[in-house]
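User: Before I run my own analysis I want an independent prediction to cross-check against. Here's the chain; please return only the structure tokens and, at the end, one sentence I can use as a sanity check.
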Amino acid sequence: MTGVEQGTVLVTGASRGIGRAVALRLAQDGYDVVVHCRSRVDEAQAVAEAIRAEGRQSRVLAFDIADRAACAQALEADIGEHGAYYGVVCNAGIARDNAFPAMSGEDWDAVVHTNLDAFYNVLNPLVMPLVRRRKPGRIVTLSSVSGLVGNRGQTNYSAAKAGIIGASKALALELASRDITVNCVAPGLIDTDMVSGEIVDEALKLVPMRRMGRPEEVAAVVSFLLSPQAGYVTRQVISVNGGLIG
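Assistant: Structure tokens:
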């Protein structure tokens, strides 16, 4: 990529799925990438090795995004040693689907606290270092079509993903004068291991393009939002859903 600052981008949940595709795409774009995982360290190391094969630097950070203290400790130590990031992609999350009357309090708490609290847990230690760089910066969060319109059996997931949209829009306002953009990408039905096989056929009937999206197609949108060319794009939610919703 021409004209790009050769900065470092942290991608959470980068050992597989959309996060892995984003990490590999950013390496191709010329960024160094910090690959985050919670427990799949071997898979994360494989992603880091693939990034190095592209001629970029990469390292792995392992911590639970739902653990506020662990997030702060790992991230503050990493930027203390290597310097502030140019960009952050908040991708990591979980889903525990069930009809609302049958949804346990544990499943509600796990999904809401992991997915929504991670916005604070990951970004709060990183925002001031971003600001103190006194250079352009980029934050991209991952929501979902469920956060835009809701989805049957996903009241917990929809609540958390809708919250991410609101938080991203508010943070975008706070950081706009610092030339740090904050945008949200809302994927629809994407071909990852988070998609349950039994729901695909029914769900595809609602998708005008009649296919699932590929992680690389989401990664391409994230790539643009992190680029210098997206410097005047902030506080936006961009859907990648094959026309499922407009």
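Sanity check: The first helix runs from residue 17 to 29.
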